[in-house]
Write a structure and sequence with these properties.
four-stranded antiparallel beta sheet, 13 helices, Triger factor/SurA peptide-binding fold, 13 strands, alpha+beta, Chitinase A, domain 3, 447 residues
């Protein structure tokens, strides 16, 4: 039996079901059943479901370790215990309501949820080998771990589906409510920070032709294995050089502008379950599979859910030196009068900006890396920076203008305000719904 405190214990954040309506819910650990309930203290009863004191103890211990509450701190530990017990009760109340409403989830949804949990666990532990060591330490197997996770994941999905159906789907905000939220919270929203209007030219680290050819051949051979029936997820875990490989290559749901253009152009053109040929970006070669395609609607733009396998082309010191020399030569041309926009269009390797004269728009000063912030804020309008080395290559920046700190205008943050107002309204709606549902359930607190 897996020890609840071991490395394979499923993480159970002590949170309300609606923190900013993130649909994150409490998924209590399934502890080993005691030999006799008579020997166990009972913390609470929700209808006929018993919450044991030992279960509360374990959750308090985990939460205390996570949030830095020492067991010797009796005051804060008592507060934490009360919060944990209330949320375990909250979970059981929602599950009771879900049963009354007939809310269910399919075995397929549960399996996919468990897959995500196992993938996240492997990533947290540091990879497949560490995962296997943890299994051995806990004297279990992956199949045994999946069996342990299944009821927890099923409960969490049922809770999320119930709250979505009973609260989220019935709660919308109007433009008038968003504007009222802005007026009421204007003083606490803060100011728009100082920003620089920047343009850049990227000279990327390009691998030599031999390395690129080898990476392409490797990507081609992996694609062949997938087409012949190999598991995309398992091949991603084994061969992908991207951190997402530990999750079977899953990139989640994304919209246009979230990925580099070369990747997006292919991803948004694929049909679900179609495997792309190798797609080259500055990071390497990618095999892309779109799992779902979500057309644009009134509230959301077009999005896709995709996964990929990336074969990286790692730059060598010689590649980096070649990029540095080229960047210095370009800056010298700019200092002698060459047009920045024309040079960006001709030489920049950032496909997203080169056709717009390298424009990056307004970049908030606090968001700049410290070494870049010091240099770029010292430049006068129209001046060009020395090349900055970053992860993907050397960047040459030009300061096009400055935007001073100022109060946010309503239209500038309307979308953010709508999300904030929606979250607040959902929090309030959830509380009213839960308070009403709780009255229909028999709750006895024994502690």
């Amino acid at each position: 039996m897996i020890r609840s405190a071991g490395p394979l214990a499923r993480r159970s954040p002590i949170v309300r079901p609606f923190p900013a309506f993130a649909l994150t819910v409490l998924a209590a650990l399934s502890l080993p059943a005691p030999p006799s309930l008579a020997a166990e203290r009972i913390a609470a009863i929700v209808n006929k479901t018993v919450i044991l004191s030992s279960e509360v103890d374990e959750q308090v211990r985990q939460a205390g370790a996570r949030y830095g509450v020492s067991p010797s701190d009796s005051v804060n530990t008592a507060k934490l215990r009360k919060e944990v017990l209330n949320q375990l009760i909250e979970k059981e109340v929602i599950l009771a309501e879900a049963t009354r409403l007939g809310v269910t989830v399919s075995p397929k949804d549960v399996n996919e949820g468990v897959d995500q949990e196992i993938g996240a666990l492997k990533e947290r532990l540091g990879g497949d080998e560490q995962f296997r060591q943890a299994l051995a330490q806990e004297n279990t197997t992956e199949a045994g771990l999946r069996k342990k996770y299944e009821p927890e994941v099923r409960e969490q999905l049922v809770i999320m589906r119930t709250i979505s159906k009973e609260v989220q789907s019935k709660t919308q905000v109007t433009d008038a409510e968003v504007r009222a939220f802005y007026v009421a919270n204007k003083d606490s929203i803060g100011k728009r920070p100082e920003a620089l209007r920047l343009a850049h030219i990227l000279i990327a680290f390009e691998p030599d032709s031999i390395q690129a050819k080898r990476a392409r051949q490797r990507a081609d051979s992996i694609r062949t294995a997938v087409v012949k029936g190999g598991s995309f997820a398992k091949l991603a875990e084994r061969f992908s050089d991207d951190p997402s490989g530990k999750r079977g290559g899953d990139l989640g749901i994304f919209g246009r502008g979230d990925m580099v253009p070369e990747f997006e152009d292919v991803a948004f053109g694929l049909k679900p379950k179609e495997i792309s040929t190798p797609v080259r970006t500055r990071f390497g070669f990618h095999l892309i599979e779109v799992l779902e395609h979500f057309p644009a609607n009134d509230s959301l733009p077009e999005r896709v859910h995709a996964r990929h396998i990336m074969i990286a082309t790692k730059p060598t010191p010689a590649d980096e030196e070649r990029a540095r020399v080229r960047a210095l030569a370009l800056r010298d041309s700019l200092l002698h009068g060459a047009d920045f926009g024309a040079m960006a269009k001709r030489y920049s390797m950032d496909a997203a900006t080169r056709d717009s004269a390298g424009s990056l728009g307004e970049v908030p000063v606090p968001g700049l890396a410290p070494n870049m912030r010091e240099v770029l804020t010292a430049l006068r309008e129209g001046e060009v920076s020395t090349p900055f080395k970053r992860d993907s290559g050397y960047h040459i920046f030009k300061v096009l203008g400055r935007v001073p700190e100022a109060e946010y205008k309503y239209d500038e943050i309307k979308d953010d305000l709508k999300r904030m107002a929606q979250n607040k309204k959902l929090e309030d709606a959830y509380k009213r719904w839960y308070d009403r549902v709780k009255k229909t359930v028999n709750v006895e607190i024994k502690e």
